[in-house]
Design brief:
The protein is an alpha+beta fold. The protein contains four helices and ten strands. The protein has a domain of about 160 residues: Nuclear Transport Factor 2, Chain: A, CATH 3.10.450. Strands 5, 6, 7, 8, 9 and 10 form a six-stranded antiparallel sheet that branches. A hairpin with an 8-residue loop joins strand 6 and strand 7. Helix 3 runs antiparallel to helix 4. The N terminus is likely disordered.
């Protein structure tokens, strides 16, 4: 029977030209492409990203290493846990929490970065830098625990020139109280009250002391001109002062 041009017989054609072979090859190609897509596309956990939405994100945990806010509330009563120790003939405060952490024969350092730490530093550094204790105390204290400045150098020079040794214990003032004039973690201005050793009506010296946080510790700023008298006020009125001192 003659072959018709409309109905071709594929029996004698090569296998890759037959419709069945072509359909099978196309199906295999679809399966391969689908497998590649599954391998390449990201997969979420079971139940995640249902409906094509954005997958949920886990909240970022808090950073435990972030710096904590430093305390700035100044005490309105005498700080607890303070004991008074003699340095020569004068008493200075010592606290397990406020400092000092390092004490040598003549110096004290290592104060807490807190209002109480600044207060104890003011008392310790002021009393140890007084000429009344003698050069063994005031010289290393001023050199190491005062902020370097021309005023500090002038104070050292004048004390060295007038060095007359320790004073008579009966002529020394003692700490009697304090008042905070201002406070930030970088700068503390504290009125340190000293009771003058005078008979009759009590007389007090209020020294306006400025401490700066430098190199991991509180350090004294030298008064103008290197003279304590420039920051001293004499009074017999303790209004607004917190009583604080050795008993």
């Amino acid at each position: 029977m003659p072959r018709s041009s409309a109905t071709q017989d594929f029996a004698d054609r090569p296998p890759w030209t037959r419709p069945g072979f072509i359909a099978s090859a196309a199906l295999v190609l679809v399966v391969i492409i689908a497998g590649l897509l599954i391998a390449v596309l990201p997969r979420g956990d079971d139940g995640d990203n249902v409906g094509g939405g954005t997958p949920p994100t886990n909240p970022t945990p808090a950073d435990s290493s972030a710096p904590q806010a430093l305390p700035t509330a100044v005490p309105t009563t005498a700080p607890a846990g303070v004991r008074w120790e003699l340095v020569g003939p004068v008493a200075v405060p010592v606290s397990a929490t406020a400092g000092p952490k390092q004490v040598t024969g003549t110096t004290a350092s290592g104060f807490a970065h807190t209002p109480e730490g600044a207060l104890v530093a003011a008392a310790q550094i002021m009393m140890r830098s007084s000429h009344t204790l003698g050069r063994d105390y005031w010289e290393p204290t001023i050199q190491r625990q005062f902020v370097p400045s021309a005023d500090r150098d002038r104070m050292l020079a004048e004390l060295r020139a007038a060095d007359s040794g320790p004073a008579d214990p009966g002529s020394l003032s003692q700490i009697a109280g304090f008042s905070y004039q201002s406070y930030t973690p970088e700068t503390a201005v504290i009125g340190l009250v000293l009771r003058a050793p005078a008979a009759g009506t009590p007389r007090y010296h209020v020294l306006s002391l400025t401490l700066l946080w430098r190199d991991g510790d509180w350090r004294m700023q030298t008064p103008p001109g290197g003279a304590w008298i420039s920051v001293n006020r004499v009074t017999n009125d303790l209004t607004g002062v917190v009583e604080w001192g050795p008993r």
